[in-house]
Amino acid sequence: MANNVWTSFIRWSIVTTLTHYAVIHNTGVSRRLLRYRTRYLSLLNCLLSPRNMAMTVKVDSYKYLSGFGNHFSSEALEGALPQGQNAPQKCPYGLYAEQLSGTAFTVDRRHNQRRLRQDASQRVAVHQAWLYRIRPSVAHLPYAFYKKIHPNFASSEMQYIPNQLRWSPFQLPADDSPVDFLHGLVTIAGAGDPTVKNGLAVHIYACNKSMEKRAMYNSDGDFLIVPQTGRLDITTEFGKMMVEPLEIVVIPRGIKFSVHLPQTHARGYILEVFGDHFELPDLGPIGANGLANPRDFLTPEAAFEDKDETWKIFNKYAGQLFIANQGHSPFDVVAWHGNYVPYTYDLRKFNAVNSVTFDHMDPSIFTVLTSKSAFPGTAIADFVIFPPRWSVQEHTFRPPYFHRNCMTEFMGLITGQYEAKAKGFLPGGASHMTPHGPDADTFEKASNEKLVPARVADNTMAFMFESSLMLGTTPWALSTEVLQSDYEQIWSGLKSHFRTNK
């Protein structure tokens, strides 16, 4: 909204200035300015349009390191990182050395996330980081059970049903009911088991309060957070990140974080994977460049606080939430190095590829990140987006085709209107699909429109969590009042066009 207002103000200012100059100064030059002001405005519209704002620059007060899977080094105080070893007898500044492992010590280096090239044989280094902190993480009181986050996905509480499901925008908490990020997290669907590190969960969050002196970490898996409305000011053990809608943030298993709200409320989606960490998809014949480029991922630089005060630490463990008190801030890491880190990515920087001849390409070409399964070419979860782009295919039905999929698809909409659904699929809502495809209105329009090069999805960003596992739906997701009871009706208008002659 702010960007739209600012853009409109720029347009208005320039046109008003040109008109004013032309009226006050009745010269040949000024008259030509007035005559051609529409051309200037058209050029301005082109320069300011969303499709030309894709190469955004992240602007906030925090500092970041660029790259995906790199081995980073960062220190908030000069000289805080030990030189030449990880665990000296005495660390600089009297700090404690603490290792955080994201993979087993003995994992095959060829099967780790960090990569210098897309070739799997070039993947190097285990997932780990060394933290140099004021107090070690063991300094806390015992954990106690707090509440259940989600059911066992193999239990009878879950509903595995073949129907298409769609939800209107998930509700934000009322102003008089403060809810922070942690307590506004609700599970929609899931499969597998975090205790055996295989599976995934899909959550939404809706909150209107910051996590004051509260932090959490996830022992079950990695969080991929997709803000839909409202910015998130996220403090982690590795530093601070500001994340807004059209950006994502990944917080790997075991990393503590706290979410503050710069605005009055926030809502979004979360993909949690219990198995392998997220990595960039293999590019294959695409080559070395394209899709999400590694340099566009940002990891926070070290920042710390030295505060002796009571904090509540929440731990998501086997689908349950546990709580413990500790007498100091958990964000006391003065320096760190490693490749097991949180990171953020701007979806507007995605370099989309598509067909320039005929037919609608499979949505896998829009994969941002993937968490692979034990079966080659198959994912526990893919994170896929449908960004603004050109559509130029000839003699082709251009919207996403009708589809039955052995994979499970869960879709959300960050902003705009999704190209395959004319009505009902709204920002902040979601759908869980088995057989799926465009609605009747979209089909009729796309089947008869003149095929010329056209922009698709301007001012829109839809996404998909796709999994090889069958997602069960939670009781809450099936009982919430925003579940659309008549979703299947969008296809009721699809009539037969069959005839015996071509």
UniProtKB/TrEMBL annotation:
Q: Which GO terms describe its molecular function?
A: homogentisate 1,2-dioxygenase activity; metal ion binding
This entry's Enzyme Commission designation comes to 1.13.11.5
GO biological process terms, alphabetically, are: L-phenylalanine catabolic process; L-tyrosine catabolic process
A GO cellular component annotated for this chain's UniProt record is: cytoplasm
Q: Which residues form the Homogentisate 1,2-dioxygenase C-terminal domain?
A: 348-498
Q: In which pathway does it act?
A: Amino-acid degradation; L-phenylalanine degradation; acetoacetate and fumarate from L-phenylalanine: step 4/6
- Record-linked CDD domains: cupin_HGO_N
The protein's matches in Pfam families, at most eight in alphabetical order, are given as: HgmA_C, HgmA_N
What positions constitute the catalytic site?
360
Give binding positions for homogentisate: 418, 436
The prosthetic group or cofactor this protein requires is: Fe cation
The UniProt record gives the binding positions of Fe cation as: 403, 409, 436
Instruction: Tell me its family.
Output: Belongs to the homogentisate dioxygenase family.
Name the chain's protein: homogentisate 1,2-dioxygenase
Species source reads Paraglomus brasilianum
- Print the organism lineage: Eukaryota, Fungi, Fungi incertae sedis, Mucoromycota, Glomeromycotina
